[in-house]
Amino acid sequence: MVREIAHDCDVLVIGGGIVGLSTAYAITRSAPGTRVTVLEKEPGPARHQTGRNSGVIHSGIYYRPGSLKARFAVRGAAELVKFCAEYDIAHAVTGKLIVATERDELPRLHALVQRGRENGIAVRELGASQIGEYEPEVRGLAAIRVATTGVCDFVGVARQLADASGARIRYGAKVAYIDRRPDRGVAVRTDDGAVVRARVLVNCAGLHCDAVARLTGDDPEMRIVPFRGEYYTLARPDLVNGLVYPVPDPAFPFLGVHLTRGIDGSVHIGPNAVPALAREGYDWRTVRPRELATTLAWPGSWHMARSHWRYGGGELRRSLSKAAFTQAVRRLLPAVTPDDLVPASAGVRAQAVLRDGTLVDDFLIQEGPRTVHVLNAPSPAATASLPIGREVARRTLKALATT
Q: How far is CA 242 from the centre of its chain?
């Protein structure tokens, strides 16, 4: 006879970023009375990917039609604007330009127009002379304008989700050990010795999601390879009116160095994408040997490096040379000088990489016994956080119903 287990909660969410908090919010909205606890190792919410991005509400134009990213970003952008308006969270729908500066980018720009239309996004095509209607200091051969792009305070969104979820949220609670027993539930011990018992566990640990998955006993068949994105603030913000992006390379999930006028009126420039030497390696001085060894031991890291060394070399050069970074910016904004670029806080992207070196392009959610793992949720996950939360909640409540 199996002894009855006294669970501390029905669902335990690991990770207090915007995806974890949106999941807690969606669970309690979908199934009132469900007891949800969130464990976050930092002293407050949204301290990593959520709080260190460029603050952009993405339209969904870049993503493969039918993919989770496309569906959730388009839906999520509209929902996020409504959420911000309802709770008086700072936001603005500014629109953005995607600008081609070289002739070989024109076919890719046209492909974005088609993709945007397939994803249900209104796109206006601009000739070189029309770019100045929106951005007088920006130069290019052609551009497209996407009106639904905007900016918001994602940390404010995360805080509101935490408050409105009704979940019990424990900050400063780092997961040390997980004991999952499919017939009994999941017990999680934190580094202060406390134990939380739950019927179902949800892994929204972001930069550490693969490590948490392995702690449960599941093999996620991917590893997080952290990429640092470095930013500058523009000393002359009057040079930029809104948001300006280059035409991205479809071989990579990165959007390139772009110009973003934030909700506070400042203009951020970046990010690049360079390998970080720690999961939370926000500068070159931060090195965590164990985490770096995990990255280097993953075969996918080496396959990726061999395939994309030329692209990576360019990103590294822009990281180490302000002059090179300035040169990249001047393709879009010729008036900028090195003195205009003031170093700003960096972010780290949690990029899932498969064993063969493939960079996972879509959101990746996997399920195991009594567990749901969110294993790839970089940009545009903040934009898509409300629909992602509902999808994870749906899978979680399904698992809860079978326990």
A: 21
Dump pLDDT digits (tens) for 313-356. Answer: 989 999 999 999 999 999 999 999 999 999 999 999 999 999 99
**Using an 8 Å Cβ cutoff, are 302 and 246 in contact?**
no
Coil, helix or strand at residue 177 = strand
**CB neighbours of 287 closer than 8 A, spacing ≥ 6?**
277, 278, 281
**Is it the case that residue 251 has pLDDT exceeding 90?**
no
User: Count of CB atoms within 10 A of residue 2's CB?
Assistant: 6
The answer to whether 372 and 396 have CB atoms below 8 angstroms apart is yes
The residues near 398 (Cβ < 8 Å, ≥ 6 apart) are none
Would you say the pTM of this structure is higher than 0.90? yes
Residues in contact with 4: Cβ distance below 8 Å, sequence separation at least 6, in sequence order: none
Q: Which amino acid is at 160?
A: Q
The single-letter DSSP state of residue 237 is G
Question: Residue 288 and residue 295: Cα distance in Å, rounded?
Answer: 11
Beta strands in 128-242 (DSSP E): 142-146, 150-152, 168-171, 175-181, 185-190, 195-203, 222-229, 232-234
Dmax (CA) of the chain: 78
Which of 8, 314, 14 shows the shortest CA–CA distance to 176?
14
Q: Which of 212, 160, 290 is nearest to 40 (CA)?
A: 212
Q: 263 Cβ partners below 8 Å, 6+ apart?
A: 55, 90, 91, 92, 151, 152, 153
Helix (H) or strand (E) holding 158: helix 154-165
CA distance 139 to 144: 13
